[in-house]
Amino acid sequence: MKRDTSPTAALQPAAPRGIVEGLVYVFERVMPDPFMLSICLTFFVAVLALLIAPTGNVPTLLDSWYTGTFGILAFALQMILILATGYAIAEAPIVQRGLRALAANAQTPARAALLVFPVVAIAAWLNWGLGLIVGALLSREIARRVHVDFAWLVAGSYSAWSICNSGLSSSIALSQASHGNALNLVEKATGHVVPLSETIFAPFVVVPTVLVVVVMTAIFIRMHPKSENVVAFRDAGNDDADASDADPHARPSDAPASFASRLEQSMLGTLLLLALGVGYLAMEWHENKFDLDINTTILIFLLIGLALQRTPIAYANAIRRAARQTGSMLLQYPVYGGIMGIMKGTGLASMIAKAFVTIASPLSLPLWSYLSSLIITLLVPSAGGHWAVQGPFVLPAAISLHASVPRTAMGVAMAENVSNMLQPFWAVPIVAIAGIRIQRVMGYTAVTFAVSLVIYAAALWFVG
């Protein structure tokens, strides 16, 4: 019997034939659009706060929601800029050639997994924004060449990215290692900073980070659907574009040469911005010690992207295309900011954290910190905002119990890695860039959630 290969048929999931297929099948039917999910979570948290939170009254709830919704806007723009500037780097011709060269080595689904996991994991360990962009674009390049299930491949990229909170861009680890940082709660309580050697470079962090990448690579190779159930990548290219998609700022290709067009195509503007940016970084790092924060990361990405795209108009066009991929985050960040505001303002987050802390011992506190963080992360999917909510309760407990402060803090960060596999917030940009529905992807990452949950918990308990 000939199989229906029409585009409509490709959107219809096959009937489940195993555990993984069943998860994908369920997620496609149960999980709503991420924006709708964020609204549902807001309603759930609001009701829970009214019922059990210490200050769960309507005026406090409304005020906390409003404060959180608009208090997150600056941070939201920073995150969107990281993604947009990272996208412009990844879209540069030289980077695209590199991705195509890498993708040419993936000739089977197994080789695709063996390529994607280490490449994306290394990129994510260096910088979470870079990992998201590289994962999405590398997946597209591989899928153009190999008969592979695209949702499976994108889920593999997202799973490899999950280790980012154990890497150099971990906001929790970086803030505790930075003197005077607003989120350095350890320094505020003890007067000391926690060096990265005791957090992201410590064995209890390095070992599970490597294990998650290795183990999930092997599992994903086994999870690839059978050939008859594969839903391959459909590259619409420019065929589906219509006049409504045209860039209103683009100058017609047949337009006569003018001063404006020559200025746009000149490297003069690029060189001017590069001089300003490089000059500032050189001055700052000379006068103070080398340090990376969100703003300098954005600046570095901006400068690299400008250099790679070469002309101002090429960079501007790349950012315009990036904006189409990050638009959904403009909706979700304020909604999750409102959830964070409700949890913090009504005392709901402190209730969750304290409930675990009260039953902890010096040895078990990092694990309880990890478990409570799993719950909070599902509702506040931002490591920085999450730490601001949970840190003030778990750190004093660690100090009073004489528990390991670095281990307790990194327990929160590790749970971020795990919960992101069920919380679709950070999956939105990768699926938007890749061009796929998020529901099929989350069906696969649910397996990553279960496996990494055990690996990180075991490392906190057993690894020195």
The computed structural class is: mainly alpha
The SSE string, one letter per element, is HHHHHHHHHHHHHHHHHHHHHH
The shape, in one word, is globular
Low-pLDDT runs: 1-16, 237-246
Number of helices: 22
Name the average pLDDT.
83
Number of domains: 1
What fraction of the residues are assigned to beta strands by DSSP? Answer: under 5%
Number of strands: 0
Q: What summary fits the major beta sheet? A: none
Between the first and last Cα atoms, what is the distance in angstroms?
58 Å
- What percentage of residues falls in helices of 4 or more residues? over 70%
Radius of gyration from the CA trace? 23 Å
Structural notes for this entry:
- This is TIGR00366 family protein.
- The chain crosses the membrane at residues 35-53, 65-90, 110-138, 200-221, 268-286, 298-318, 330-353, 359-380, 443-463.
- Keywords: Membrane, Transmembrane, Transmembrane helix.
- Pfam families: SCFA_trans (PF02667).
- InterPro entries: SCFA_transpt_AtoE.
- It is a single chain.
- The protein has helices spanning 7-10, 19-30, 34-52, 58-71, 73-90, 93-103, 109-126, 128-143, 150-161, 171-177, 185-190, 203-223, 259-265, 268-287, 294-309, 312-345, 348-357, 365-379, 383-401, 405-419, 427-434, 438-462.
- By secondary structure, it is mainly α.
- It has one domain (16-231, 265-282, 291-462).
- Helix 7 (109-126) runs parallel beside helix 9 (150-161) and helix 16 (312-345) runs antiparallel to helix 21 (427-434).
- It is globular, with a radius of gyration of 23 Å.
- The N and C termini lie far apart (58 Å).
- The relative contact order is 0.16.
- The model is unreliable at 1-16 and 237-246 (pLDDT under 50).
